[in-house]
Amino acid sequence: MQKSRKTTVGRLLSLALVASLAGCGGADAGPNPTTSISAPGTSITATTMYGPLSPSEKALLGPDADGNGIRDEVDTWIAATFSDPATRTAATTVAQWQTWAMIRGVRGTPTTTDELNSWDAAMSCLYRTSHKAMGDSAPSVNTWKAQLFNTYARTKAYLTWDTSTDGMPSSVGPMPCNDIKPMTTP
Amino acid sequence: MTRTLMKNLVVVLLCVDMVCAQASMPLDTPSCQPTGTQIGFTNGIQNERWEARGSLEALYSLAEAQRLPVAGTQLFYHTKGRPGHETGKESMKLDILEVYWQLAQASVGNDPAKEQQAIALFHHAITAPSSGYSLANFGGWLLQAENDAEAQAFQAQTAANVQLETQTDVGLLLQILSRGDRLMMAAHSQGTLWANSALQRLASLYPRYAKQVHLVNAGMAASHVWQTPGSAYANPYVTNQQDHVINQLRNLAQLKGLPVPAPANSDAGLMASGLSGHSFVDVYLKQDYEPGQLFAKTFSNGFKQVTSENPTNPTLVAFDVDMNVGLAGQAALTSGAWVPDQTPDTLTGPTGELMAWGQYLRTGPQTFRVSQNVYCGYLGSGGADVAPVDIPLYVSMPNNLPRPTISGTLTFNGVTTPVAIANRVISDNGFLDYAFAHVAVSRVNGVVQAKVASY
Hints:
The complex is a heterodimer of chains A (about 190) and B (about 450). Chain A is mainly alpha-helical and about 190 residues long. Chain A has helices at about 5-20, 45-50, 55-60, 70-80, 85-105, 115-135, 140-150, 150-165; one strand spanning about 170. Chain A is about 60% helix and about 0% strand. In chain A, helix 4 packs antiparallel against helix 5 and helix 5 crosses helix 8 (about 150-165). Chain B has twelve helices and 16 strands. Chain B is globular. The relative contact order of chain B is 0.15. The chains are: A mainly alpha (about 190), B alpha+beta (about 450). Strand 1 of chain A pairs antiparallel with strand 3 (about 70-75) of chain B, so a sheet runs across the interface.
């Protein structure tokens, strides 16, 4: 790839990453710390989001051409489903956190309270923004799961993580989109 | 003991000014400022966390529609199945075992002194023949152990897990309530058993905080609703006449000799086919149905009640406890991960937990740090002087293990104190809680003091 094209692509990817990491918009948009933003011109890969991935973890993630940590077909579904910018951002954040959960599920590392609160805040942010923008036509959890966990391996990884959080309560403030902390290594 | 007490006594002067107190806290320390009235939700069986969060969000939408000023949402999550058994029949079996055990405990009022009675009732429930009731009627609810040994293993595993999760719920309750927040709780299905027992434990350990909670149960598996101490307002429940899950459980509980779910008190009438009459979101929050309308009214009333009953916004002081505990002569305290399918002889579940204010303090074996946790001392309103408020720090161990010998250091606001555990048992509920150290917080002549001492 030519250096100038690389820089342009890098900038575009940086902007995409910034947009996806900016968290929820909508009524409670506010400062949302995103320490994993790369400088313009930096090549973004899934490694930037989740750190180095093993082959099986890469398989869980699936094809991710733009390196935003989301499987490409999920990106396509999000773009087609959510026209409201704030909701699309929230949806992207959810997809990233659920991918994080799958990887964390196979790694077996215990989830901390902070991570759990951020995961919950991401789900809450999506719920509030999507129901505000779309009402009852907002996709259900089952629709989401069908998109995200469309293989046995992905379902298993996700459920393994979910069960590992058994009995762990979580707290979300009045503005959940502002409660999503920077993603840790899964 | 007195000499040890004096030797270990540490007096720490804290800033009354909240900014000053907060400036000394770690950056990620939660604030001790009250935020208002929170809403909370405890889910039932066969729920993944995403679904439970969805139920809580639907509850939030209901509250928002009623213009209730919700300060935040608290999810008291209990998963389906266990690690390695997340789906299918095994997952359902594990959930049902929990329900049986929780009902057995409820039959003796969750009294730890009557644990043997609860064990006997549980044993009977899963070993007695269920003649006259077919799998077609009850499906997976007709759970039976193959023999006494299996029944004992089921009881031990289930009881320990329920104990741990209940205590973790209490920990979150304390974090919310100790900073002066109120909490309006809703619970659904098995969640009504979780909520009842956690709130009962909270009330027994910290009765002043229990006053800051009201509860409404929906699709109630329990026979009663926990009542807020000192409140004239009776916490209600809503159970649909057409709730086929609770109806089934009611019949089965009668058969098994377990406490029977309270009778239905509302009727959704004709519903779309495929609905079991049990769904929290599709029935108990749905305003098209009478149970939904009743739930909305009672939840709103409870929210307003708990807020009006607890109007004070006291000046609170935050303090941090950083504990490094070494173990002597005892197996390492684990992180609490539960290993399923173990016989009692090779039980590898948690051998003990270090706790403060009901919150587990652990990151792994032998060394426990809680630098991220801040527990707010409730010191009353108006900045008035108050007598010492004693907050115990304790180790919780299963009561069938030898008494521990544990010593270590406790770092409080930068001052490190050696402390040793004493043989002082402060509660027995299947787990023995050994007092480790305590913090006495008071305000004298306007100056907040905190004394850390060993027992």
